[in-house]
Amino acid sequence: MSKNSDAKQLLELIGGKENIAAVTHCATRLRFVLQDPQQADVDKIGKLVSVKGTFTQAGQFQVIIGNDVLAFYNEFVKVAGVDGVSKEAAKSAAKHNMNVMQRLLANLAEIFSPLIPALVVGGLILGFRNVIGDIKLLEDGTKTIVEQSQFWAGVHSFLWLIGEAIFMFLPVGITWSISKKMGTTQILGIILGLTLVSPQLLNAYAVVGTPADKIPFWNFGFAKVQMIGYQAQVIPAILAGFLLAILEKNVRRVVPEYVSMIVVPFLALVPTVLVAHTVLGPIGWAIGKVISSVVYAGLTSSFGWLFAAIFGFTYAPLVITGLHHMTNAIDLQLMAQFGGTNLWPMIALSNIAQGSAVVGMIYLNRHNEEEKQVSIPAAVSCYLGVTEPAMFGINLKYIFPFLCAMTGSAFAAVISVGSGVMANSIGVGGLPGILSIKPQFMVIFFLAMVVAVVVPFLLTVALGKTRYSAKLQNTGGIPVK
């Protein structure tokens, strides 16, 4: 069936041109904002040859096409007679279909999404530094590679230049991202972030060990303000970033255009920096500390295994709702406060488990060449940290592999948390995630990874061969619902 034919059918099945408020695409999906999402015939759309799956997230009806999405998108807009829009415009239109909580989560996601490539690179760098600088691999396990080689010692030191820029100066990225999202002056956002991590300030990591009378301060005569930095802090940067954007927008409304270039930046930036260091910074620090302390206490308590089992089992469904975006902020706060995160390893294990369930489906469906064209690339991308093709293209389509993956993820999470596994940072959320794990926990995390691979695979194959055996296609294919 041609793309033209599928495009025509898709147009009909989503309710026609009149039901399309906006349409755009990303790397693998068409993203629709529909006037009435109920008009979309999800079951029939999922059966189109060109379609790998569908799901609704953040107010958008998303149709998974695959790597040739651009060609399909071009054909669709031609057939439908509609104009495509940017992803930002589609997101803005989609907010009309979202409740207050969904809008809040969408805004949080939009702040962190531009930062994820840097965070992943930072995680890989810290992971590589782990291997050469912290694991004693040489001379019968008594020396590290860095201790034996000046070249690798230089590499180890050089790579921290990048790691420091990513994690220590994270507030700069956050305040820039907020300015970009809010449509305000991005350079002001960058400058605000720099004022939170300036070398003039006492480094956030040194505050705890510094006596109160030794902390530097600005003396205004009638008041003193402590000169404390907010390196790697998330919530203070978010609060300051939104205050700057709100001030700039409101000041711009009342200031005459002919003096706005001078007046607006001054009246927006200076008060924001002052409020950030006197009010928002300390409040944000306290909020972040409470959140991270509660999560850390829960994961390290005698009931940590229960928390781990629940989180491991429910993380994949959280991805569907978009709630998983909040974990980025929690992970970064844990890293800042405890020097690592025990939450992120469970996320990596959940991703691995979803990929393993797809591998189980590949085995069950090994004679179905058409299905393998979808499932094999989905499994590979899932093991490399991109779960959408696996979850929405295979596991959710047939339900039982999704549940098998959730179960395997729960078992692996219990092993990880029960053994005190900590990651240095966020990394690639799949098999390469082991590089982000602290060296002393790599062996036990590898065991958890094995569980995340084996359990979902065996459960998927077992269910596919027993409970659903009567419904399997004669080719050995996927059970027919």
Automatic annotation (TrEMBL):
Transmembrane residue ranges: 104-128, 158-178, 187-208, 228-246, 258-276, 306-323, 398-421, 441-463
Principal subcellular localization: membrane
Cleaved signal peptide residues: none
Localization terms from the record: Cell membrane
Cellular component, GO annotation: plasma membrane
Membrane topology: Multi-pass membrane protein
Lineage: Bacteria, Bacillati, Bacillota, Negativicutes, Selenomonadales
InterPro entries: Glu_permease_IIB, PTrfase_EIIB_Cys, PTS_EIIC, PTS_EIIC_1, PTS_IIB_1, PTS_IIBC_treh, PTS_Sugar-Specific_Components
Active site location: 26 (phosphocysteine intermediate)
Pfam families xrefs: PTS_EIIB, PTS_EIIC
Domain PTS EIIB type-1: 4-86
Coiled coil: none
Domain PTS EIIC type-1, chain residue ranges per copy: 106-479
GO biological process: phosphoenolpyruvate-dependent sugar phosphotransferase system
UniProt keyword list: Cell membrane, Kinase, Membrane, Phosphotransferase system, Sugar transport, Transferase, Transmembrane, Transmembrane helix, Transport
GO terms, molecular function: kinase activity; protein-N(PI)-phosphohistidine-sugar phosphotransferase activity; protein-phosphocysteine-trehalose phosphotransferase system transporter activity; trehalose transmembrane transporter activity
Protein name in the entry: PTS system trehalose-specific IIB component, Glc family /PTS system trehalose-specific IIC component, Glc family
Top-level taxon: Bacteria
